[in-house]
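Researcher: Predict the fold of Outer membrane protein (Porin).
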Amino acid sequence: MKKVIATSALGLFAIGAQAQSSVTLYGIVDTGIGYLSSSAPSVGATSGGHSVVKMINGIWAGSRFGLKGSEDLGGGTAAIFTLEEGFNSATGAQSTSGLAFNRQAFVGLTNPAYGTFTAGRQYTAYYTLLSPYSPTTWLTGAYGAHPGDLDSLDTTYRVNNSLVYQSPSFRGLKVAGSYSVGGVAGSLDAGSTWSAGVQYLNGPFGIAAGFQRINNATNGGGAWNVNSTTNPLPVSAINAGYQAAQAQQRVAVTGGYAFSKQWDVSFSYSNVQYIPGTHSGFASEAVFNTAGAVLHFKPIPTLDLAAGYSYTRASEANGVTSGASYNQFNLSQYYSLSKRTALYALEAYQRANGQTLSATGRIINATASIGDGQNGTPSSSRSQVGVGVGIITKF
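Model: Structure tokens for Outer membrane protein (Porin) follow.
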């Protein structure tokens, strides 16, 4: 990392100056090659899928650069900010078109005795407290997120116009809450996002629980427009039939236990509900339950190995008599060449069964879509295999 220190009195940048305020430039560049056994031309396509080899980027950790800053205000209180831009290291394009700081853009205050309060585009309290035990920690989001990232345990849900408070840790217990203002005239609810979470750490054991609700800014459901605070929302073959929901609601529990310095295990369970409105295109609430676990092994200081499994089951609703289910298996290998640079390899397999709704509301056979990296190009069949290798460096 490269750090630039500035004195608050002069407002001038200087290296090695008195540490009253600081700005840190940081980033990640992650590029590799990936193989998919079947990649359909679009979400919902039931034919035309072919195997593909392509360049992949940001698979282990999204390619990004950013600025973090803090200023000591006295009495233990500091002003803080983060501006973070994601990009495609294969093409140089923005990871989200039209958003300069698409990953994070917030400012706030922090105090070790009272906690941290921030405002801007950021992650919800739900994600922040649950994420230490997310399957994406060792399996990545692109290959290892629960199918389509239905439960928002990857970084794909970033929220605009949000206010977030996180408490300090009290004997291992931490709480957090967030509210994102929808800004829709005549309604405090439309377009808003709110969440809460609690986390407890005690030696090698940790557990967290959270709740998150995302409300559509369009009255009665329909297309999620720019007034929705969580925008754009991930759409995949898993949830395509429910993308016009009036609201999305999530309850999740994650946890983990470290057996030793070499072995640890994490687990997760989530319940996700897509709630219909008058213009949603589906009539009954759709529910997805997911359970998963990841075993992590570090045989030597430079090598991390992990294996994971998750099972997702959809409810029988809206004419579906055999709810979709998804079995996903993952392996990962991460070899550190230095403190900043590493090589990695990923392998994943997913099998889909049952039926689901297409984007047009038709009942179709469920198709596989590994993690959340294939949201736009899922398999056109029940199964999908993914393999990726890459290099990552941090600065």
